Amino acid sequence: PTTTEMLALTDVHTYYGHIHALKGISMTVNEGEIVALIGGNGAGKTTTLRTVSGMMKPKHGTLTYQGQNAAGIPAHVIMGRGMSHVPEGRRIFPQLTVRENLEVGGYTVLDKALIEQRIQEGFGFFPRLKEREHQLGGTMSGGEQQMLAIARALMVNPKLLLLDEPSMGLSPLFVEAIFDIIVKLNRERGMTILLVEQNANMALEVAHRAYVMQTGEIKLSGKASDIAQDESVRKAYLGDE
Ligand code: ATP
Q1: 15 CA from centroid of ligand 1 (Å)
Q2: Which has fewest Cβ within 10 Å: 15, 44, 191, 211?
Q3: Is 69 helix (H, G, I), strand (E, B) or coil?
């Protein structure tokens, strides 16, 4: 099969004021892939996703999404082109019900029947959300909120899904459930996924390729199975002694 580049970053530099968070990042995500971005605290993983989804503007370098420039293009425009970002910490609307959260996620979808169809698809992926349809988002467990955050992002039927630490703070059972859905979205829907994770073990298990970040730079990249075997990675991120 031919490889189609969905996302490409070349020598991307992003700053917070004077803080140089991304120091020349180059990476690609091909259509149909799950790509994992791993690395320790403060490595720049979240900043990479924010730059990709238009929440931050790179100061230097090029960023293309589906062959078109995406650097500094506003987040809502990028979203309209089929990219959806599940931010770190979930950020669901605590005062809205599960259903209302999903409706907000689909606000750019004008066809009411399609909105309803996507809500039902979300309930298909996450039966727990169906059971809690009228519960306030803020009263749900962390794992349930993460499910809601993902289901909300799916309301626009994205081509590219950005997931920032979906397993953070979740019990092992929820972690399994979330990773199962990631694989399912990729295999059954052909969804392309860029996954940021501190849980490198799980991320490398589901990903096709991976990039390892450290202090704003990419230190290593390759097939996820090879990265998982790498001794320096095992020591730093996979809990090996
Ligand atoms: P973590 O897993 O801890 O979230 P990360 O790899 O996602 O780490 P980033 O959050 O992208 O890392 O942070 C990269 C660098 O940018 C860090 O040095 C961090 O302190 C800095 N940074 C992140 N957010 C801000 C901000 N809002 N203002 C200033 N500096 C920031």
Answers
A1: 10
A2: 15
A3: strand
**Nearest Cα to Cα of residue 127 among 181, 60, 204, 91:** 181
Tokens at residue 69, please?
């420039």
Give the Å distance between the CA of 195 and the centre of ligand 1: 16
Neighbouring CB atoms inside 10 A of 130's CB total 15
Q: List, chain by chain if needed, residues with CB within 6 Å of any ligand 1 atom.
A: 16, 19, 21, 39, 41-47, 198
pLDDT tens for 103-122 read: 999 988 889 999 999 999 99
Take atom 28 of ligand 1 and give the residue whose Cα is closest: 16
- Chain mean position to CA 41: 17
CA distance 48 to 216: 9
ipTM of model over 0.90? yes
Would you tell me the crossing angle of helices 142-153 and 112-125 to the nearest 10 degrees? 140
Give the predicted TM-score (pTM) of the model: 0.93
Atom of ligand 1 nearest to the CA of 198: 2
Cα of 200 from ligand 1 centre, angstroms: 18
CA 102/CA 107 separation, integer angstroms: 9
- Encode pLDDT of 191-208 as tens digits: 999 999 988 989 999 999
